[in-house]
Amino acid sequence: MVMRIQEINSNSEMLNPKIYIMKVDVHAVNFTVDRKLVDFIQERMDKLEKYYDRVVSSDVFLKVERTSDKENKAVEIKINVPGDDFLVKKQCKTFEEAVELSAESLERLLVKRKEKVRAHI
């Protein structure tokens, strides 16, 4: 499932400049992902924009590893921001839990990035 960037233009460019919605690509490796999981991922990734509003896109890779382990659901999230890419990998019992932990890690990274950018201004 691929979510595309949507560009919203207002009538008044000065009062409300272009708003960009983050592009989220979900890649399921060796299985079919259901719509509920894709919607959960999209919703959680959209929340990252309140920590750093210049996120361009993200790639979410879902993998099932070592079927004998209980914690066999692996999630890799790659976030693209101008000048940098962030990659977070988590492995948990469920994809939802792994996405949540990955998003929390990305929140911390994006806050650090925002503070670093502000320090240079």
CA distance, first residue to last residue: 38 Å
Instruction: Provide the CATH topology.
Output: Double Stranded RNA Binding Domain
Coarse morphology: elongated
The ordered string of helix (H) and strand (E) elements is: EEEHEEEH
CATH class: Alpha Beta
Mean pLDDT value: 82
Number of helices: 2
The low-confidence parts are 1-18
Computed over alpha carbons, the radius of gyration is: 16 Å
Helix content, binned percent: 25-40%
Q: How many β strands by DSSP?
A: 6
Strand order across the biggest sheet?
3-4-5-6
Estimate nothing, just give the exact number of structural domains.
Answer: 1
Q: Tell me the major beta sheet.
A: 4 strands, mixed
- Beta-strand share of residues: 25-35%
Q: Would you identify the CATH architecture?
A: 2-Layer Sandwich
The H-level CATH homologous superfamily, spelled out, is Ribosome hibernation promotion factor-like
What does this molecule look like?
This protein is an alpha+beta fold and 121 residues long. The protein has one domain (7-119): Ribosome hibernation promotion factor-like (Double Stranded RNA Binding Domain), CATH 3.30.160. It is 31% helix and 31% strand. The chain is built from 2 helices and 6 strands; from the N terminus they run E-E-E-H-E-E-E-H. It has helices at residues 35-46, 95-119; strands at 7-8, 19-20, 23-29, 57-64, 73-81, 84-92. The strands form 2 sheets. Strands 3-4-5-6 form a 4-stranded mixed β-sheet, covered by helices on one side. It is elongated, with a radius of gyration of 16 Å. Mean pLDDT is 82; it is low at 1-18.
